[in-house]
Amino acid sequence: MSKKWDTKGDKVFNIVNIFILSLLLVFIMYPLWFVIIASVSDATDVTLGRVVFLPKNFTIIGYQKMLEYREIWIGYRNSVFYTTVGTVNSLFLTMSAGYVLTRKDLPGRGLITLFLLIPMYFGGGLVPSYLNMRDLGLLNTWFTLLITGALSIMFIIMARTLIQTNIPHEMFEATRVDGCNDFQYFFKFVIPLSKAAIACFAVFYAVSYWNEFFSAIIFVSDRNKHPIQVFLRRILLQNSILNDMVEMWENDVDLGKELFMLAEAMKYAIIIVASLPMLVVYPFAQKYFTKGIMMGSLKG
Description:
This protein has about 300 residues and is an all-alpha fold. It has one domain (about 60-295): MetI-like (MetI-like fold). It is about 70% helix and about 0% strand. The protein contains 15 helices and no strands. The two termini are about 30 Å apart. Mean pLDDT is about 75; it is low at about 295-300.
């Protein structure tokens, strides 16, 4: 907001800055807005490029057909399970690993840290990962996606740094004098004092679990265990509806076009429904981002 003592240069800078940021906002928000209006527009108008800023021939047929599509609800249920359980598990592992690495009495602490850093730069590859999951008996199970995305080495390092810089070691020594063990100190002091960082980690982990589809395609073949993103991908490739009706398509061109338009309508509706949980959660967690990320670099 301009003040009366702002110079002319300050006012020009503010105007240019607001203009550029507004332009960036339009570029960032338009794809989301287009998906929203496309989901309630006639599929023919969307395909022909007639939908630009406002819906054309308003319809909710995409949402209606989506609600009738059983696999969507299976995927939604699975994604909620993977995201909820996986996020809680990942947070516990991340914070506990970060806390352990802060302990000066941990034997080989530097070697363990180096061991954790190696996977950040070198990966085993897809085939060894698949063989490893197979030998462990984790293919096509509910634990597959929970394990493959359980930890982020970057978050472990961040958790270690924030605990070191924001929770003084003298606090641990004082609690030891009072008879507090490691588990009590971790749950009663480390966790409460790291809420902002935990909230930040939780959002990133939740988004990662919710958007996961590659690991599900590689390691899970049972459709009843697939997350919603796999079903969304299948519909985007038009394999879900059109392939089931291929014989009718060959015999009836009009029916084929109708099925294609129906798939287009469902596509945008499913994108909205699949993205909605993260769009709702993100604004509430946004206030923790700056504080959570900067905790490791500022003294509390």
